[in-house]
């Protein structure tokens, strides 16, 4: 199988038939003009185009399904080479101005090894890492499909981005380098279940990408029950790594907090959560839980969500509540699960 051109950085591209400056020309075709085939690259000499076409591919994801719901959220289901599938979700900002900001939620792995008890992706188990070509192509193709640029990127789809470390770094380079897609790192957010060593490594990287940490519980006992990763990387170490990240990057991190009715929505949990957020000067993003078939968890009522939010506001935390976009098409985080398509084709059902 041909290699994806974006599985390598430009300095690694093999080009026997062209001097070094042709790499720049090739990057311009790929990232600037968004060429989808080598044939289009008419400013490159034919022998070089033929060589590249024999060695590399520019597109490897096949759009298997595209679903749109009432509030403009779109889910794109991609079939990967080899038959697995992942999803990306396009989320327009809540304001309905003509220039609505558009966020794209990317997947970084097929399935996930971390098995948070509430999450649909964990039910799949870990299948494989995506490559940087497959990650960046989710953006390129999504922009082709909607005919406009995406404003923000969040690594909140399927998978644990920090567990696919090398590929994540290469993807971030392709996305942010001036010769690449030249996105501002501030418009990119990596969400993690809390891999402490990688949070520290990311803090050392020069890239100022945003960090969101899936906290979901403010005490070790509860967090270990909900998120097995907490047994390996308990809260005190996680919070230290978060603190280091925000100090080194001079950034506020985001604490994601799913609300699970009767589990983590008590007054005591709110008090503990607010102490953590104040200590880290972090923003809190409350996420009413999106129900997953076959899992026993429920979201609290809107009134209970308000009550929890108010407790945090009263203790002077910065809080936002994520609207439940995309629920009707199972596009919400944690529901990126292929079994959501009852009439899916055999390749897709094999991913259950
Ligand atoms: N592995 C990374 C990124 C993927 S999940 C992480 O854990 O952060 C993106 C976010 O969606 C995480 O905060 C995750 O905990 C949350 N999530 C998972 N299942 C959910 C569900 N059913 N409803 C709402 N949010 C969910």
Explained architecture:
The structure is a single chain. The protein has 352 residues and is of the alpha/beta class. The chain has helices at 21-32, 46-55, 120-124, 132-146, 165-176, 196-204, 220-226, 229-232, 235-249, 267-280, 302-314, 346-349; strands spanning 3-4, 56-57, 62-68, 74-79, 85-92, 102-105, 109-111, 126-129, 152-155, 188-192, 210-214, 254-259, 283-288, 318-321. A ten-stranded mixed β-sheet has the order 3-4-5-6-9-10-11-12-13-14, covered by helices on one side. The longest helix is centred in the middle third of the chain and has 15 residues, at 132-146. It starts with a strand and ends with a helix. Residues 338-352 have low confidence and may be disordered.
Mean pLDDT: 90
- Terminus-to-terminus distance: 25 Å
Bound molecules: S-adenosyl-L-homocysteine
Number of helices: 12
> What would the principal axes of the Cα set say about the shape?
elongated
In the CATH hierarchy, the third-tier topology of the largest domain is known as: TIM Barrel
Q: How many strand units?
A: 14
Major sheet: order of its strands? 3-4-5-6-9-10-11-12-13-14
CATH architecture of the largest domain: Alpha-Beta Barrel
Question: What key attributes describe this structure?
Answer:
352 residues; alpha/beta; DNA polymerase, domain 1; TIM Barrel; 2 domains; ten-stranded mixed beta sheet; 14 strands; elongated; binds S-adenosyl-L-homocysteine
């Amino acid at each position: 199988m041909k290699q994806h051109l974006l599985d390598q950085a430009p300095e690694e591209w093999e080009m026997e038939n062209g001097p070094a400056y042709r790499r720049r020309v090739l990057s311009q075709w790929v990232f600037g003009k968004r060429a989808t085939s080598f044939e289009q690259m008419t400013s490159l000499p034919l022998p070089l185009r033929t060589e590249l076409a024999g060695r590399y591919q520019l597109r490897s994801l096949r759009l298997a399904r595209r679903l749109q719901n009432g509030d403009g959220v779109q889910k794109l289901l991609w079939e990967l080479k080899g038959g697995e599938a992942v999803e990306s979700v396009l989320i327009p900002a809540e304001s309905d101005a003509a220039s609505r900001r558009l966020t794209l939620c990317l997947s970084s792995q097929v399935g996930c090894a971390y098995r948070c008890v509430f999450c649909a992706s964990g039910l799949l188990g870990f299948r494989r890492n995506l490559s940087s070509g497959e990650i960046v192509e989710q953006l390129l193709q999504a922009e082709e499909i909607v005919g406009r640029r995406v404003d923000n990127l969040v690594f909140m789809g399927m998978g644990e981005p920090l567990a696919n470390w090398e590929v994540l770094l290469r993807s971030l380079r392709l996305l942010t380098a001036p010769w690449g897609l030249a996105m501002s790192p501030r418009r990119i957010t990596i969400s993690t279940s809390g891999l402490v060593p990688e949070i520290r490594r990311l803090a050392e990287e020069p890239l100022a990408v945003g960090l969101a940490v899936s906290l979901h519980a403010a005490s070790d006992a509860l967090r270990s029950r909900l998120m097995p990763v907490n047994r390996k990387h308990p809260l005190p170490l996680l919070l230290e790594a978060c603190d280091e990240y925000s100090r080194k990057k001079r950034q506020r991190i985001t604490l994601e907090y799913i609300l699970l009715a009767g589990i983590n929505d008590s007054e005591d949990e709110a008090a503990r959560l607010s102490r953590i957020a104040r200590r880290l000067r972090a923003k809190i993003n409350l996420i009413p839980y999106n129900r997953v078939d076959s899992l026993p968890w429920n979201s609290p009522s809107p009134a209970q969500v308000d009550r929890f939010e108010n407790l945090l506001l009263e203790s002077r935390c910065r809080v936002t509540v994520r609207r439940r976009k995309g629920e009707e098409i199972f596009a919400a985080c944690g529901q990126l699960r292929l079994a959501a398509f009852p009439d899916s084709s055999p390749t897709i059902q094999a991913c259950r």
